[in-house]
Specification:
Helix content is 34%, strand content 28%. The chain is α/β, with parallel strands linked by helices. It folds into two domains: 5-180 and 296-386, 3-Layer(aba) Sandwich (Aminopeptidase); 182-293, Alpha-Beta Plaits, CATH 3.30.70.360. Helix 1 packs across helix 11 (372-386) and helix 9 crosses helix 11. It is elongated, with a radius of gyration of 24 Å.
Length: 390
């Protein structure tokens, strides 16, 4: 029996994915990646638009007479970390690594464009959205602000992410929140600085910072309803440069993850009050910068059900996720503007000791190429369901 056309695409998609992995590009600098994507879409006869969000690419495929539209999104950027794997396709760019699988997401969406351009089993318009700067820089927000949905109207939007915690061949999503909002805080405590042998002459900002870290870690447990879910993590304390000098300032940095705005508001208010109280107790001054950089990723119910149906149609074992993840995703900006759903696509290799069996953001992480056909089929099934002729 002849191979399914999607299988026919696989050698080229694997080659594309590994080429992108070997040439990772950081946020808003995905010029080579964007050029490869745009060229691939033009070869298919799609309308291709570049420059949205700086390095974003949108390809449009129309078929039939329906005015219905659907958007499919893939992220293109790499992480600013050094790759430590020894694969032949390992990163050739120092300090950049596709440690989150965006190389695989890009290859999957290119494959979906090829398959949909060939089969055209839909009635309407598909926008293939290749987005820059997902890794903490808000490329989706920039594309929205620059008119993504005004130029490319979408009745609904869909995206996927490879998920090492799920076995290959499985997929999950859920209605409502699926990924957390991500906030960052930087708290600067200021004294005067002085000799370490004369601590009575200056506020001890390192002692204040130490007590602040302890108190911050009580906020979720003691300020939120126990039924709510949230995470507050202090990730850096910085201050001082000598063993015999009390520094003039110290900085406490960290992140907050929540799923609803009420909990987000409560934590920010408690954090500000806690920082002010600790500073007052130590005679120090304090500045608090609290930045809400990604909202929660919230799926709409109708599109979640469609995503699960499409996963089954793609040959995946689909199920509803029991709980959301505390990691964040800037696809949230698209879901604030349009209905849609975000899918976790299993890529677990079964053997935790196998090469490439690493968690996301690990310096030895590598995308599992066996996931490619499942991702292509899922995107195609989403389009054929959302833009069915019936």
């Amino acid at each position: 029996m002849a191979a399914h056309p999607i299988e026919d695409l696989l050698p080229d998609l694997v080659a594309l994915r590994r080429d992108l992995h070997a040439h990772p590009e950081l946020a808003f600098n995905e010029r080579r990646t964007a050029g490869i994507v745009a060229a691939a879409l033009r070869l298919l006869g799609l309308e291709v638009h570049t420059g949205l969000g700086g390095t974003g690419v949108v390809g449009t495929l129309r078929h039939g007479s329906s005015s219905r539209t659907v958007g499919l999104r893939a992220d293109m950027d790499a992480l600013p970390i050094a790759e430590q794997s020894r694969f032949e396709h390992a990163s050739r760019h120092a300090g950049a690594h596709h440690g989150c699988g965006h190389d695989g997401h890009t290859a999957i969406l290119v494959g979906a464009a090829r398959e949909l351009a060939r089969t055209r089993r839909f009635d309407g318009t598909v926008h293939f959205i290749f987005q820059p700067a997902e890794e903490g820089q808000g490329g989706a927000r920039v594309m929205v602000e620059q008119g993504l949905f005004e130029r490319f109207p979408c009745d609904a939007v869909f995206a996927l992410h490879n998920w090492p915690d799920l076995p290959l061949g499985q997929a999950q999503t859920r209605p409502g929140p699926i990924m957390a909002a991500a906030d960052r805080f930087d708290i600067v405590l200021r004294g005067r600085g002085g000799h370490a042998a004369q601590p009575h002459r200056t506020p001890d900002v390192l002692l204040a910072a130490s007590q602040l870290v302890v108190q911050l870690n009580t906020i979720v447990a003691r300020r939120l309803d126990p039924a709510q879910s949230a995470v507050l993590s202090v990730t850096r304390v910085r201050g001082g440069s000598s063993h015999n000098v009390l520094p003039a300032d110290a900085t406490v940095t960290g992140t907050v993850r929540t799923f609803d705005a009420q909990a987000q508001d409560q934590i920010e208010a408690a954090l500000r009050n806690t920082a002010a109280g600790v500073a007052l107790a130590h005679g120090a001054e304090v500045d608090v910068e609290y930045r809400r950089y990604y909202p929660a990723t919230v799926n709409t119910e109708r599109e979640t059900l469609l995503a699960l149906r499409a996963a089954e149609a793609a040959g995946l074992r689909a199920s509803v996720a029991s709980q959301p993840a505390f990691t964040s995703e800037d696809f949230a900006f698209l879901l604030r503007e349009r209905p849609g759903a975000y899918l976790w696509l299993g890529q677990g290799r079964g053997d935790p000791a196998a090469d490439g069996a690493r968690p996301l953001h690990h310096p030895c992480y590598d995308f599992n190429d066996d996931v490619l056909p499942f991702g292509v089929r899922w995107f195609c099934a989403v389009v054929e369901d959302a833009l069915s002729g019936s």
